[in-house]
């Protein structure tokens, strides 16, 4: 993206920080993706964040002396309105925090009506508590960063109007969620196996999604290229048919407002039978990215869902830099899709129930249905029957298919 503004990053390194350098590198990339060229980063080691000015006022004065003119001072954490005012008064420039940067990216990436509503809801819920008194300098905020897109219009309007808009958005999203629930119920009644791709943003989920489904989903080397969940059919080498969903990427310090707004979207993954966790094997912060996704998996109650880890982009880096206890494979975009699909099939088979059955030689239609609804591993032709063995999801698929009489009989 063309750099249209300049900015610096402020961060604190406290005992709560797991890896502040990783967070700052990520925030720099986030900022540059919305057109802010980062010309300096400043980290203060502290026991805790300063309640008045985030970092010490003396530290702010020292930083201010190093720059003649900058457009933005970007804070690595979500800050209070009072902290924003204090930093702004000393730095004499617009101040935005990590949450606003992420909200801005989401507003640029959202494509569907539901996605745009979710972003607007997150923006408004972020702003409401900051409208008391002076709050954040709204004239500066109105310039765009952190509030552009659906949430950009007339931020100076009164709180009642904003709360009314929040209620209206929640009603519209409730309708979307009701539609999703009906779809989930239909899928469960049809006993369709669902797989969800999850992972850190820009790990290559959409590229894998396209490869495994022959879809044409947007795939770009940028953060949060996918916001709206997409679902397609995936056919495994044995012929077993299931559905796979591509989901929004995770990130360190994902704002609470966004987690709440996108909760229904994230719950799509929590409703899955299997999870494929995609990791960028070339990422410099591979461990912190892995830990971030694990934390969110825990918060969404997804720990018990069978999980396969795919270390992606091994064409860029094929070193084994992280070896989790979970089943895992090393893949890249240049591999044949069938190889990756076979890894997924073998992974699924280990959680399915084994079965053995036979069908009359004349009833090849039943074999076709078995291949679509179960993982058929062996087929042996006899004189009068076909012996079949394989693996099936819980629910006795094979038995029902074999025992079900043809409508003509």
Automatic annotation (TrEMBL):
It is found in: Cytoplasm. One of its GO terms (molecular function) is GTPase activity. GTP binds at residues 199-206, 224-228, 246-249, 312-315. One of its GO terms (cellular component) is cytoplasm. The keyword Cytoplasm applies. Its cofactor is Mg(2+). Residues 193-313 form the Hflx-type G domain. Keywords: Cytoplasm, GTP-binding, Magnesium, Metal-binding, Nucleotide-binding. Mg(2+) binds at residues 206, 226. The keyword Mitochondrion does not apply. It comes from the Bacteria. InterPro entries: G_HFLX_dom, GTP-bd, GTP-bd_M, GTPase_HflX, GTPase_HflX_N, GTPase_HflX_N_sf, P-loop_NTPase. NCBIfam families: GTP_HflX. Belongs to the TRAFAC class OBG-HflX-like GTPase superfamily. HflX GTPase family. GTPase that associates with the 50S ribosomal subunit and may have a role during protein synthesis or ribosome biogenesis. Monomer. Associates with the 50S ribosomal subunit. HAMAP family: GTPase_HflX. This is GTPase HflX. It comes from Jeotgalicoccus coquinae. The gene is hflX.
